[in-house]
Design goal:
Radius of gyration: 26 Å
Helix content: 25-40%
Number of domains: 2
Shape: elongated
Number of strands: 3
């Protein structure tokens, strides 16, 4: 746990971290800021820049998730009797058209 890498005063235990981790990882860990123990936790809604929940952004988030789940056709190319259909993810299928 991260708390095992901290001192009783809420600071990183730099000596322990440098002992346990390779230097690159230790440096990255020590760059992570720690919050003051006096600060209270709070709830925040990530899609809003001010962190306050709204029905509008909840609806937008649901729409975004729904659109990512559905892969509509974005392109259709005909060449001779061959048809190529490509999804938004870039996957293409070649189908022979009836004469």
């Amino acid at each position: 746990m991260a708390s095992d890498l901290m001192t009783n005063s809420g600071q990183w235990n730099e000596e322990l971290i440098r002992e346990i981790f390779i230097s690159v990882d230790a440096a990255a860990i020590l760059r992570i800021p720690l919050r003051s123990q006096d600060d209270d936790d709070c709830w925040a809604w990530e899609p809003e820049k001010h962190g306050i929940y709204s029905v509008k952004t909840a609806y937008q988030k649901l729409e975004q998730v729904h659109q990512q789940a559905v892969l509509p056709t974005t392109g259709c190319f005909l060449e001779g009797n061959m048809e190529t259909q490509c999804s938004t993810e870039g996957a293409c299928v070649v189908v022979e058209s009836a004469p």
